[in-house]
Design brief:
CATH superfamily of the largest domain: Methylglyoxal synthase-like domain
Helix content: 25-40%
Radius of gyration: 30 Å
CATH class of the largest domain: Alpha Beta
Largest sheet: 6 strands, mixed
CATH topology of the largest domain: Rossmann fold
Strand content: 15-25%
Number of helices: 19
Distance between the termini: 57 Å
Number of domains: 3
Number of strands: 21
Oligomer: single chain
CATH architecture of the largest domain: 3-Layer(aba) Sandwich
Length: about 500
């Protein structure tokens, strides 16, 4: 048995090779790996001893040689292959142990140069892995140090089964695919969102107890390269996160992160049911909770500033599933930790992103829909007043605030806002007037003097008429309906102010 070992990450490699030698393996290696194994007292040959050709081009070419790939790719059950192996004096290679140059870690370093990144694109390593994985009926391929121990045990006990080698081959190809995806994304950068071929690089973070429902299996994956957002959060307290907890925590984090001022959002089933901006964080929380205290129970609370003691105290009386924030004052964290099951997440700042991570993917039967994320800023200077009455300054501020909230609600989305606080919402309905009904019912008396945002145009005047009957004073919407004139007439009849944005924010 002969084993080729060439690893950048040396973790566990000496112990593996010691076990391989006990199984009767001859060791062949390259550069740094050769030195590490030799220093550990192992008898190991260099690749150049087999090929008769030295490493060249500063190590760019080491293993690319027929004496290496012939030894890996030869089918042991083909007489013709074995005759060629003998005639060219090629030694068979039965085990290939490889991990790759750290391209991902390199490109996530601050101020990394293009030259540094290019030098960390591995060529020989992926080729060795692919060759060994292709010939897995006869060759064992190892790319993950976590597999070293059990594979060594299997080899010492007589060898691996075909299914076990097939599983290792699958892991090798998947690893190379991820590696190549990260390189392709880096080369592409932020240009060319939707190329003719598109892959996403994902790495498993953890298995989840189940999906949206107990009969569904689920797992959490991170973007590669990544390191930020809810997936990169540190859990400081509480029970294990569920599939639904992660979805809702993400919705809360994205919502509060979209506001420049200190903001608190309360989310239920991915929809903000409470949201407020205020210079006093505890007051912002209390206003967000008051927007819909019934729905807030069992929800997720998001903060875009470090959580203060006063805000933590204000949260005491209400049961929440998750709190998500960039940080917590030590005393605030101590208060929140008194709730045994409350999941407390700290989301990292300084998120590393590449173009593909600003892309949203949605599974459909037979394929995937891709789109750029709805993150661009709306420009109020492009909005137009379409009513006879101009909105007041306070209405202008609340309309802009409501418009920002609307894009975080499921369409058809209706938002009612008063004093930078969400007082009522309707979302996810098959028609817009039903969403207006729901928003008004949630707001109750707070609808008097509130402003309304609609994520898409009003197809009829009925929604505006209903809002006016309950005391709404101003409306913001994209416009663009064939009945815009009818909607504007209803607005003027009720003495409302209305802004058209020219842009919609559907969220299905």
């Amino acid at each position: 048995m002969r084993a080729l070992v060439s690893v950048f990450d040396k973790k566990g490699s000496v112990e593996l090779c010691q076990a391989l030698v006990k199984c009767g393996a001859d060791l062949v290696s390259t550069g740094g790996t050769f030195q590490a194994l030799s220093q550990a007292g192992l008898d190991v040959k260099q690749i150049s001893d087999l090929t008769g050709f030295p490493e060249i081009l500063d190590g760019r070419v080491k293993t690319l040689h027929p004496l290496i790939y012939g030894g890996i790719l030869a089918r042991r059950d083909h007489l013709n292959h074995m005759d060629q192996i003998d005639s060219h004096s090629i030694g068979l290679i039965d085990v290939v142990v490889v991990n790759l140059y750290p391209f991902e870690a390199t490109i996530t370093r601050p101020a990394v140069t293009s030259e540094e990144a290019l030098e960390n694109i591995d060529i020989g390593g992926p080729s060795l892995l692919r060759a060994a994985a292709k010939n897995h009926p006869f060759v064992t391929v190892l790319v993950d140090p976590n597999d070293y121990s059990w594979v060594a045990d299997k080899l010492s006990a007589g060898g691996l089964t075909l299914d076990e080698r097939r599983g290792l081959a699958s892991k090798a190809f998947q690893h190379v695919a991820l590696y190549d995806t990260v390189i392709a994304q880096w080369l592409k950068g932020d240009s060319g969102y939707f190329t003719d071929e598109f892959t996403l690089g994902l790495r498993k973070i953890s298995a989840l107890r189940y999906g949206e429902n107990p009969h569904q299996i689920a797992a959490l994956y991170a973007d590669v390269p990544g390191g930020g957002g809810v997936v990169g959060a540190t859990q400081l307290h509480g029970k294990e996160l569920s599939f639904n907890n992660i979805l809702d925590a993400n919705a809360a984090w994205i919502a509060v992160s979209d506001f420049p001022d200190q903001t608190v959002a309360i989310v239920k089933h991915t929809n903000p049911c409470g949201l407020s901006s205020h210079e006093d964080q505890a007051e912002a929380y209390l206003r967000a909770n008051a927007g819909d205290p019934v729905s807030a129970f069992g929800g997720i609370v998001g903060f875009n500033r470090s959580v203060t003691v006063s805000a933590a105290e204000a949260m005491r009386p209400v049961f929440y599933e998750v709190v998500v924030a960039p940080d917590y004052e030590p005393e605030a964290l101590a208060i929140l930790r008194k709730k045994r099951d409350l999941r407390i997440l700290r989301v990292p700042e300084g998120i590393y992103t590449v173009g593909a991570q600003n892309t949203e993917a949605r599974r459909v039967s037979g394929g995937v829909l891709l789109q750029s994320a709805d993150v661009s800023e709306d420009d109020p200077s492009e909005w137009s007043v379409r009513s006879e009455r101009q909105p007041s300054n306070s209405e202008q501020h609340d309309l802009a605030f409501a418009w920002r909230i609307a894009k975080h609600l499921k369409s058809n989305a209706i938002v009612l806002v008063k004093d930078r606080t969400l007082v009522g919402m309707g979302a996810g309905q098959p028609n817009r007037v039903t969403s207006v009904h729901l928003a008004l019912r949630a707001a109750g008396e707070n609808a008097q003097g509130a402003v309304l945002a609609s994520d898409a145009f009003f197809p009829f005047a009925d929604g505006v008429e209903l809002a006016a009957q309950h005391g709404v004073t101003a409306v913001i919407q994209p416009g663009g309906s064939i009945r815009d004139d009818e909607v504007i007439r209803a607005t003027d009849t009720a003495s409302l102010a209305m802004l058209f944005t020219g842009r919609r924010h559907f969220k299905h």
